[in-house]
Structure formats: C-alpha cells, structure tokens
Amino acid sequence: xxxxxxxxxxxxxxxxxxxxxxxxxxxxxxxxxxxxxxxxxxxxxxxxxxxxxxxxxxxxxxxxxxxxxxxxxxxxxxxxxxxxxxx
Amino acid sequence: xxxxxxxxxxxxxxxxxxxxxxxxxxxxxxxxxxxxxxxxxxxxxxxxxxxxxxxxxxxxxxxxxxxxxxxxxxxxxxxxxxxxxxxxxxxxxxxxxxxxxxxxxxxxxxxxxxxxxxxxxxxxxxxxxxxxxxxxxxxxxxxxxxxxxxxxxxxxxxxxxxxxxxxxxxxxxxxxxxxxxxxxxxxxxxxxxxxxxxxxxxxxxxxxxxxxxxxxxxxxxxxxxxxxxxxxxxxxxxxxxxxxxxxxxxxxxxxxxxxxxxxxxxxxxxxxxxxxxxxxxxxxxxxxxxxxxxxxxxxxxxxxxxxxxxxxxxxxxxxxxxxxxxxxxxxxxxxxxxxxxxxxxxxxxxxxxxxxxxxxxxxxxxxxxxxxxxxxxxxxxxxxxxxxxxxxxxxxxxxxxxxxxxxxxxxxxxxxxxxxxxxxxxxxxxxxxxxxxxxxxxxxxxxxxxxxxxxxxxxxxxxxxxxxxxxxxxxxxxxxxxxxxxxxxxxxxxxxxxxxxxxxxxxxxxxxxxxxxxxxxxxxxxxxxxxxxxxxxxxxxxxxxxxxxxxxxxxxxxxxxxxxxxxxxxxxxxxxxxxxxxxxxxxxxxxxxx
Lengths: 87, 594
Hints:
Chain A is α+β, with helices and mostly antiparallel strands. Chain A has a single domain (about 5-85), classed as HPr-like (Histidine-containing Protein, Chain: A, 2-Layer Sandwich). Chain A is about 35% helix and about 30% strand. Chain A starts with a strand and ends with a helix. In chain A, about 35% of the residues are buried. Chain B is an alpha/beta fold. In chain B, about 45% of the residues lie in helices and about 15% in strands. Chain B is built from 24 helices and 16 strands. Chain B has helices at about 45-75, 75-80, 80-90, 90-105, 110-125, 130-150, 175-180, 200-205, 220, 245-260, 265, 290-295, 320-335, 370-375, 375-390, 405-425, 445, 450-455, 465-470, 490-505, 520-525, 540-550, 550-560, 570-580, and strands at about 10, 15, 20-25, 165-170, 185-190, 210-215, 225-230, 235-240, 280-285, 300-305, 340, 395-400, 435-440, 460, 510, 530-535. In chain B, strands 1-8-7-3-4-5-6-2 form an 8-stranded mixed sheet.
C-alpha cells in the first residue's frame, strides 16, 4: 500500500486552528487513505477535527504528515497544496 | 463583534396557562443533563455500542433537518454552522475513543460519552483562540444532542444552575424535567410543541405562571438570555420587546395582579352557588413542595394525587416504606379532608428508568397505567400495601387510572384483596373500608359507568384523556389542537352519562382534568350535577369565584341547552354569551392588550 511521509510547514495564515482545520478535515475525509499528523511528540488522526484542533498548529509550524492507502498520492497532494496556500 | 441591534419579534402560539411574564429566556436544550453513573456487564458492551451508534445516527438526522429548515428560512450561510456540527458528530477520534472506553471501562454509553466530551471541551476552553472557543461551544451543543438521544425520555436536566427570573424555552418539557422545576424561580414557559393539556401546561398552572406552547420553532428564534414577554392569555411571545411594549405589559401585569388580589375575598368563604349548592373544590397534587399552595388556596382535600412523579428521576423503584411515609405525610397534612391517591399511571408519555418498557407504536393505546400494573403485579402490590398502610393516618381514598371496563376493575380489586389479606395476616393496620374509585377517562368506561358504579365507591372523570380518547386527538400533538374540543357534544354526553350512572348508584363523581379549572366549562359540569372538582391549587379561587356568582338552577338550565348544540365551538360561544348575560362580572378582567 502506498505510504507517503513528509514534513511540511503550515502556510495558511491562521495556522491549523481556525476554519482551515475544518476544511482540512473535510478534504481528508474525501479519501479512503489514512492521514496521521505528527507535531513534536504528538500524533493525531488527520480526519478528526478534534485531533487537529488539539494539536494546535500555528502559522509557520512544522508538521509531519503521514498518508497511507490506495489513494495516498492524490490525497497527499491535495492536503499539501491546502496547507501551502497563503490565503 | 458589534452587538446586533435587536428588533421586537412577535410569535403566536397556543395559550396554555394564563398570566403575563417578563424575563430572560433560558434555552433548556442548551443546558446540561445529569448523567447517572452506570457500570455495565461484559455482555452489555455490544448493546451500549449499538446504542451509541444509533444515537449518532439519530443526531445526524436531527441536525440535517434543522440545517435544511434554517437554510430555507434564513439562508444557506447561516446553515453552515451545522456543517461544523456534523463534522464534530462524525469525528472518528471521538467515536473511536468512546467505543474503546465502553469496552475498557465498562460504563454505559452516556456515561463514557459525557466523560470523553468533557475532556475535549476542557482542553478546547484552555486554548487561547476564538475559533476554537467557538468550536468548543459546537462540541458541547452536539454533545447535548447525542446525550438527549442516548438518554431518551429518562433524561433529566441539571437545573441546579438556574438563577434569576427566567422563562424556560424548550422544544418540549418531559415530565421528568418538569419534576425538577418545582421550587425554582421560573416565570413562564415557551415550547415548540404541546397544547393546553401538555405536561408543561399542567406544571405552569401548578406553579401559577403563564405558558405559551406549540410555537413550532420558538427554540430556533429565541436565543439564550433574550428578553422575552409571554402573554399566556393570548398565546403571544414577544422577543426583545421595545421599551413601549415592555411598559404596556408591565401595566397589564399589575392589573392582573390586582384582579388576582380580589381572589383573597373568596378565600375564606364556602364554595357554594347563589342558591346554596355546595361544591367541594380539591387540589391536584404531585409533591411535597405543593403543600403550601394547597393550603393557601384552601383546597378541601386532594382530589388527585399523581404518584408516578414519585417513581421518576431515579434508577430504582421506590420502596413500600418510602411510599408509605410520603402518603402518610400528605394524609396527615390534609386530615380530616380526603386525599385521593391515584395508583401508578405510567406509559403513554411518562416513562421511568427502573421499568424498561418495550417501544410501542401508539403508547397511549398500549401498556399504560392500570394495564402496566396488572402486567407488573409486584410493583402494583408494593404501592397498594403502602397506600393501605397510610389509610389509617387520615382520610385516604384510592383510584385506578385507565380502567376500560369492569374487567380491569375486577382484576385490580382482586390484587387489592390479596394484599389486604396479607396485611391482615401480618397484623398490619389499615382501613378496611378505604374507598376505591375508578377514573373515567376511556370512553368505554363512561359507556359502562352503570356497571362500574356497582363495583366501586366513587368516580373521578379525567377529562384530558377522556377528550383525547373520545375525539381520537393526540393531546400532545400541536397540529391537532383545533380538534381538541372539551365542549364537544360526545364529551359532554359521556360526562352526563357518567354522572347519572354514579348518582343512580348513589356514589359521588369528581372531575380532575383541565376542564375543571376553566370557569366556562366548570359551569357546564356544575349543571350536569358534578359533586366535586379537582384542579391545580391556583385555579381554586377562580372557580370558587365563578361558582359563587351563579345559581345551580341556571347552570342546570345552561347545561341542558348546551347539550343540544352540535359543536364544541357552539357550546363555548353559547356559554360565554349566556354567562356574561347572567353574571356581568363573570370574566371581570378586561385587558388593554388585544
């Protein structure tokens, strides 16, 4: 099963707290692959709004995103693009 | 964010309890529930997980429905908030954690869920971020909905947090919630569903506060802490009233207080008609907190003691000893006047945690009241023993609810006979001649009143159910409110039949439904020959005042004429016209608000 692991920097202005967190989860839930977000020692399910909010990722923070599953590539690409958007 | 300018909004609903209240809205559905700790056995784990899944799917359907309603009424943008709610609801981390902990910790689904939820909310509240703070409110909101579905009819709100002068705004108020509301400073009630005979209306009348029910979407239009005015006579709710409106209602409220002050003049005079017919006015009663009101309004006894409230808000059944003490207390407080204890009336819309009833398609036609007691004779026997033992401490009478004919009456009496024999064997004192009555609330009971009268000591007509069953109108369904006609010829004929069958057999008849507390309808009942009325204590002076202004012979005349009319509306119109003609100050209060 394809697995992608990569460290990325959050570029969305409000970090992953604000509405972007909800958008991120909605995007993630379109795919069948799993996504884990690691920040420091914490790891949460990227399809969970609760998880994402608990991790509290600010603008500019570094996250490791681990995507695993049949549609991993497409999913990773869309999530990465989403986090890179400076809107 | 700047505060939105609030404009006055007027909503129209069903006037269910009179009076005017001015206060701050308290949205009950946004308050927390009391979640009992309940450990489960291994084999219950699957059941609890299935219940949790079901609650999630019911909550999803509920949120979808609200979302569509808001989108249609207000606009798609406002409905987006519910997308966030759906996201929380479907959150895999939350769901997995709850399921794993049900398996590991072995507690009920609601117990585990409320713990997990609290953990998230606590964490969110500590984060310095407005968006997340907002999300924590969403999480709490969704959580309450899930808990509501998990706990069903047995849920109880945590009213300990109530303070200030508040008006309760709720989709509906369950009987178990209603119980917890006594002794709180509640100024009035507003609900989305329910009509004149809903429990909310009964509670409001017993607290002496107004209620406007059946507003359909009041909970969506009123926000927590909005200033609201409710006019229980007209069925009007005003949200964020202007200063002028508020002043108008404040004056109105003062006038009503003055009118009610005039009731004090009838407090210590007998309830009798102009031509000297004595009518016994008794109180409907539920719990200790009401004794002061019963005394204050000079009730001549308790005509209906609703015992099911005693069984609510707890996980176990009340013991014989506990019930005995409660019944004895009220019997002693009321002596030498009588206390009519109604045996358990559960089922229909009243459920308790300690008796698990199978879900029925039409619970009001199902295993309810006496039927349930006959199915669960041990629960019934416990209550009968407690009532019999209390019978030596005052003037205690007992009656069975929902008797459909002599068959049930005999079945219940044979259990009673057995209980008496056991008490005799044990040497426990009780009143061998404790009067046993039948509630006439099913049309078949009214039709067989002559047969029932031979086998019991008195009748009490429960008009709320009698109307519901005679007219096939669900009294909790606000869409049916227009068909719920107390003055309907069929209802009046059944009442007349019941009264004459009772008098032929030389037994007394009382009425303990809402009809007894409406002065217009009470005059018809008087004219039909009723011996006593039982009602919420605060209605006693209203009825006494009306009875003292009329002659019995006139009431008989009016009742005869009313019985020749064809519809409930015609009956009410005829009565109001005639009563106003005969007694100009019958309805002396004329408000300024039209």
